[in-house]
């Protein structure tokens, strides 16, 4: 991680995301925590913070007070003074927020233009895996309960475990091995970037949702599931955050534990 400049540290970002779950907001939190960047976690810090999430997705809204277009869904990042006419800028879509933050908070490989694009591609791939994980418990309809699509979930999760997990893990393994500067600990370059925090969060969620499957895959993908996964937990900023009590437990979000969907 490169040191955030004095200019960078002046901004306190607002993260607007559902309270009580890690969800996609966690990708933003981890990047901010790893870089020691101050932020407000609006819906978790303030008991009325949920209102900011509700306002974000108000179906009658066409714009906010600062002229930003409405959000489709959280997470969103509000940046004081960075919008039009010095008003707050509202940024949505997880990878868009991460890409915006990347060089501002020192979570992209500094002075390495190619590395910046490589990091972003790895993030987008990890978020594809994130989305595919969601589909294992909601393969038919997002608005229906898991209990209403259990049969299809079992088929989807079986294919996910048998084919998709190893394909993604194989890709991560190759990238980590190919980045000789990273020593198996970093995806791009020799310091932590937002590619590392994003992949780590998806792996951590998968360890929660499919513990038997992931445990069984450890020998096959040792760099990803052993070296990388355990070393990121020890990174400055991340280590403190994980043990701070601020880290929210998994529950009914993207990563859910349904033992019947795991390896038997
Ligand atoms: N592609 C968007 C997906 C956003 C998203 O699906 N957010 C979830 C919470 S993690 C949500 O509230 N979705 C409501 C919906 O899709 O109707 C992103 O990465 O930010």
TrEMBL record:
SUPFAM superfamilies: GST C-terminal domain-like (SSF47616), Thioredoxin-like (SSF52833). Residues 12-109 form the GST N-terminal domain. GO terms for molecular function: glutathione transferase activity. Keywords: Transferase. It comes from the Eukaryota. One of its GO terms (biological process) is glutathione metabolic process. Residues 116-261 form the GST C-terminal domain. This is Glutathione S-transferase. The lineage of its organism: Eukaryota, Fungi, Dikarya, Ascomycota, Pezizomycotina.
């Amino acid at each position: 991680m490169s040191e955030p400049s004095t200019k960078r540290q002046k901004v306190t970002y607002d993260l607007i995301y559902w309270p009580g779950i890690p969800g996609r907001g966690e990708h933003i939190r981890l990047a901010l925590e790893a870089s020691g960047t101050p932020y407000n976690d609006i819906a978790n810090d303030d008991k009325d913070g949920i209102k900011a999430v509700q306002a974000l997705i108000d179906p009658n809204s066409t714009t906010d007070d600062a002229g930003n277009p409405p959000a489709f869904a959280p997470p969103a990042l509000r940046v004081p003074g960075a919008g039009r006419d010095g008003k707050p800028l509202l940024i949505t879509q997880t990878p868009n927020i991460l890409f915006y933050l990347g060089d501002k908070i020192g979570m992209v490989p500094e002075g390495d233009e190619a590395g910046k694009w490589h990091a972003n591609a790895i993030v987008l791939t990890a978020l594809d895996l994130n989305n595919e994980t969601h589909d294992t418990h909601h393969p038919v309809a997002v608005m229906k309960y898991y209990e209403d699509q259990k049969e299809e979930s079992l088929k989807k999760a079986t294919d996910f475990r048998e084919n998709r997990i190893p394909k993604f893990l194989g890709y991560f393994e190759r990238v980590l091995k190919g980045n000789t500067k990273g020593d198996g600990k970093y995806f791009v370059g020799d310091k932590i970037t937002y590619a590392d925090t994003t992949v780590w969060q998806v792996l951590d969620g998968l360890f929660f949702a499919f513990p038997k499957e992931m445990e069984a895959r450890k020998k096959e993908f040792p760099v990803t599931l052993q070296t990388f996964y355990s070393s990121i937990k020890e990174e400055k900023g991340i280590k403190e955050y994980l043990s701070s009590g601020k880290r929210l437990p998994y529950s009914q979000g993207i990563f859910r534990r349904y033992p019947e969907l795991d390896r038997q």
